Every structure is written in structure tokens, then in C-alpha cells.
Amino acid sequence: MSLHLTATVADRDVDVSFDVADGCTVALLGPNGSGKSTVLSVVAGILRPDAGRATLDGATLFDLAGGTWTPPHQRGTGLLAQDALLFPHLDVLDNVAFGPRSTGASRARARDTAMTWLRQVDAADLADRRPSALSGGQAQRVAIARALAAEPRLMLLDEPMAALDVTVVPAMRQTLRRVLDGRTAVIVTHDVLDALLLADHVVVMDGGRIVEQGATRDILARPRSTFAAGIAGLNLVRGRAEGSGVRTPGGLLVAGMPDDETVHEGVTAVGVFSPAAVSVHLERPGGSPRNVYAATVRELEPRGSQVRVRTDELAADVTVPVVAELGLAPGVEVFLAVKASEVAIYSA
């Protein structure tokens, strides 16, 4: 295991423990204020936790009980933030050469290393420019090269594309996918595409705690937290297992198909289903066994040939003709129905 982290930051109510395997990229997901950036700061050595221990490739980064604290520049970590934070008085080549130079490389060798990494991120033609002459996307490419030129054992990326124009994000994502391949990294992101394309493993945080973790595709296909379900575009209801369904705290029984051998009567469980499986009605539907919810339309979101109908709790995908036929608009009272066969239930 490359990174092992256990840390408590009392004043931010953060208490976490997780591992990152060698050569694996882990995505930290969660709503704003959930503690993701705090975790990165602890690993990087910018923030000292109240308790805990972290090791990287067998070396101790900190051990609060044992009195060990390795300073940031000796940890073998590279931190890439939202802003490139390039040195304004240095040109691009010397910005990237800064890491090798700080570890004792000669100026010539450091510059050779810098050019190698600038080529890796398609920024070699920027070598003689000052940061003030770079676009946001160009500056972030240079920042990636600078971080990697220091040959970190662990890359830490804190929403590296959040400050970029949306038009350059896809190319930047491909760059990161290429340079992170086979490297050990932790990336904080809100974007499901970052998790899918860059990460092998996902850790979901909420309220300073880890609420679920696992292989990226497993988490996004079978989420156990509201946040993960939301970014995966799925509906999720939570409650206690009852029969073949889930009884919510509000008393509603959601029938489904148990998809987990650990679902036993009374355990905390979730029911997950696609918005495409939800039908919208103006009157309560009858017919085959189904779950029916009374709801109020809050928002209509165009999604290509379909429209996502959002209510306070659930979402449904319908066609444009259905929206017109039913007169759907914010404030309209509706019934949402989904067949029990479309609801996967598993323990939370």
C-alpha cells in the first residue's frame, strides 16, 4: 500500500481513514464543506491534524502519537491547486526546473528535465514565456509539468480544472489521464467525468466523514450515498430494509429487488433507480405493482431529446411531447411512479 492515512482535524470536524494503492489514482468526492481539501492539506503537510498517522511508501509523513512530523518539502508529495501559482518572475522553463533545482540538480540538468515534462503536457513551445503571457489552460499545463518534474511519490490535485474555461477542460482532462497513468495520486473533484476517466477508486466524503468508498465504476453504478447517486444521475432513497423494500424515515415503503446478500430485515438500506425508469402522471396511476410518490415539479432541465423533471426528492426523464401533453412546469402537482423491478436495493 503506497499511502495510508488516518487523521482527525477537530475544529473542522474531519475524521478519516483510507488507503491508496501503489500506482492508483483515488478521487475524493463530496459536497462543498465535506472536508476534501482539508484531507489533501493534511497529506501535503500544510495542515497539522490533531491526531492520526500517515505513511507513504513505508516512510512516516506524520505520527502525532509518536511525535513525528515530516515537513512538506521532505514528504515526496506534489500539490496541484485550482490556481497554477507559477512564479511570476521566472519564465516557464525555469518554473518547471525549480523542483529539480531544489533537490540539487544542476541548472542544465534541471532544464533538460523541465523540457521533458513540458513536452509531456504539450507545452514545450511555451518555455520562454512569462506566466503573465499564458492563458489559464496553458498555465495549468505548466503547473502540472512543474509538479511532476519534482518526481513526487504522490500527486495531490485539488480541483485542478475548476478555474479553467469549460472549452479547455476536456483537453486538460486527457493530459491528466496520460501523465497520471501508473502514478499514485489523489484528486479532489466535483465532476463525475474526472472520477470516471482519471480515478481507479473513489472515496466519498460528507460532513467530514467517509460515507462510502470502492472501485469507481462500482460506486457510480451502486451508490450508497446521496451525493454519489446525484453525480451518477441516479435516484436514491434511504431507510430500513422491510420485506423486499426500504421503509423511509417518512414512512413510505419503496418496493424493489434486493441486490445484496447483506440486505436483512431492519438493516440500513438504499433503493437506487434511474430517472429513465420513472413515469410522470397528473393522476395517481393504477395497474401493475409500482411505487408511487406524490410530488411537486421544481425544475425542468433540457437534456437533448429529453427533459429531466426534478422534484424535491426524485427526478424523472421524459420526452418533450410528454412535457407538453401534461403541461409540466414548476409548481405543478404530479405523481411519480416506478416499477419495483426497476429498483435495486442493497445495504448501506
From TrEMBL:
GO molecular function terms noted in the UniProt entry: ATP binding; ATP hydrolysis activity
Pfam families named among the record's database cross-references: ABC_tran, TOBE
InterPro entries: AAA+_ATPase, ABC_SmlMolc_Importer, ABC_transporter-like_ATP-bd, ABC_transporter-like_CS, Mo/tungstate-bd_C_term_dom, Mop_domain, P-loop_NTPase, Transp-assoc_OB_typ1
Boundaries of every ABC transporter domain copy: 3-232
Annotated ranges, domain Mop: 286-347
SMART domains documented for this protein: AAA (SM00382)
A Gene Ontology biological process term: molybdate ion transport
Keywords: ATP-binding, Molybdenum, Nucleotide-binding, Transport
UniProt protein name: ABC transporter ATP-binding protein
Lineage of source species: Bacteria, Bacillati, Actinomycetota, Actinomycetes, Propionibacteriales
